[in-house]
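Hi W.,

Here's what went into the run:
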Amino acid sequence: MECSREITNAVINCEKVSKNFLTQNTELEVIKDISIRVQKNEFVVILGPGQCGKTTLVNLIAGLDLPSKGEIRVNGKKVIGPDPDRGVVYQKTALFPWFTVMGNVEFGPRMRGISKKERKEKAQYYIDLVGLTDFEKTYPIKLSGGMRQRVGIARAYCNDPSVMLMDEPFGHLDAQTRYLMQEELERIWSKEKRTVVFVTNNIEEAIYLADRIVVLSNCPSIIGEEFTVDLPRPRSYVSSDFLALRRRITSVMEKAK
Amino acid sequence: MIMRTRTFQGSKTESLIYAILSICALIIIWAVLVNFTAMKKIMPNPFTVFNMFFISFVKSIGTHVLPVQILFSLKRVFVGYLLACVIGIPLGLLMGCSKLGNAIIRPIFELIRPIPGLAWIPLAILWFGIDEAPKYFIICISASVSIILNTYSGAREVDDTLLGAAKMLGARSFKLFLNVTLPASVPQIFAGLQVGLSSSWMAVIAAEMIRSSEGSGWVIITGMENGDTVQIIVGMISIGLVGLLLAQMLRAIERRLCSWNVQGR
Amino acid sequence: MKTSLKYKIIAIISIVAFLAIWYLITDGLKLFSASTFPSPVKVLQAFIKKFYVKIPDGGTLITHLIASLQVVLYGYILGVVIGVPLGILMGWYRKVDLIVKPLFDLIRPIPPVGWIPIMILWLGIGINAKAMVIFVSAVTPCIINSYTGIKQTNQVHVWVAQTFGASNKKTLFKVGLPSALPMIFIGLKVSLGASWMAVVAAEMLASTKGLGYMIQMNRMVGRADNIIVGMIAIGLVGALLTFILERLEKRFVRGRH
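Here's what came out:
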């Protein structure tokens, strides 16, 4: 059930977006007619089974790819390419191995020509925010998976995007680290609120982090159901409300298979 | 899944002991064969060789002592190799980054590439005479092929995700190249540099054997002309040692510059 | 696809321009004398003539070609027959590795061309000396690549074989060898290239026939057109040999790349 929202207030506005991929001789329709609106500072989680176009959708919003049909607007402007205004945190960290943590985090401001003093201060703030103080001069190769993702988050934040897109950023972490990172992200986001679109296939993760969950069906992806998560933050994985919602969503996803 | 490869469990001291034993065994067999069989007619005593090796540091072979002969060769390598880097790396980067550049340069490169560097020697001598210039030319050509090839593939194979991330963070064209494409290519460029260096060393030896009046290649070819096997072997040892040293030096430079690299070499 | 056609046309234009410039600076503007830098036309004429003219180097293109191929095949086959098994044994059996590797590492830094003088002194000017030099240049890449190929054997596969009761030797044949095959083929290719290069150098110093001898001889009589003919022949044959090997590789190493 989709609640009607003010289209004009929405930061992200996807209007009937479809995406086809050409493989060999056939055209594969990966996303079909998806319309999503995201409000300012809203944390929206896109939940769906693997390989169903979640990453494609994020790439489209980020501007790393163009839709075959439909239109995507962020802050009123049409998305035609990657832009600092839309920060991305990747699943496989795309940290620059030849830059230190500081070099990575300050990369965005440096590209925009911001003065050294200013950008170092800014980068330091975000490095501290994600809990990596004292690691400024370390190279990514020496960091653990969880730490690398933190740098990715700091790097995306440091560029002052109005929108943050996260494509299964904790997918490659072990279970323990994953729980830790979910809590970390919750803490970071609560301190520095941004509009977030977060992609995952993990129901717990979705409920823990989201203001609103959009469930995608199987290929070609269309909107399945939407769930508003009204629980107070930070949430408990084992509260009765949490578990009830989890049961509901699980059954929805089972039916979709 | 982690791929466990068939590495041997064993200590480094064990390898070292075996290595020493092996080499000693070789020298002993060499000495025995020379002293007690007909081999003494064609092979010198190992101790004569070692003796001569150290003597030639002070006693001239031809007109220069051994280290100076080596320096002649090194000088030529230095010039030719540097030339190859200065020409090859930008060319490879151009081919890798620009589709237009690739379309223009690559066909010509692929035409010239099958011709081994050493095959250019007669033409080079005809064109540049018998002095230093043909040697620089040969060395440069021999090194260029692998430098260009590896630089090209390094520039082409930059991870798209990294490029996308950089663009997302606001990097464009030249800044993108300088901050992402170039550093990402460096490990592969070094691979090309390593092969190029060993090609250069080979080329200078060949060029000196064919037409030269000094240098390591000259040492061994003159040894052959005089029937002096000791000189030849001393020359070969020095050539091998210097080749090894060059490779190690380059590897050390690479470790310094690529300390961030996941696939250490 | 329009763009790929556009680039193919540019490539062809590039080659044509290359030939045109070559022609211009030689026959057109006569910047060089014909004996130092002949035009492509003269080279083509010399190429055709060389198929049946014996002067000034004592053989036609074909006789030289066959002579070079003979030497290469002789040395190459010897190198492969000794090098590949040796590399495999070194990679599989620790004892062999410990004993042979130091000796190999000692000999290896000496470039193959460096062996020419001593081989000539020992074996005289003839096919044997040259073949030995080819042998040295072929055996090194064969050993190295076979060694690396065996070393890369997946330990898990080895364990599986062992649980099935396979002996060490059987495991080598059933697991190690097949998985090392791609690298062994790379070794075969590299060896062939190295052999072809080495024969050119060897023939320039110690031969009375062969392509290397041909280009050296023609320099002495100032016939640059024949030199270039020889160089082109060397390049073509080298490329052909690599091509043949790659065809064989595709046939034997299917389903891997």
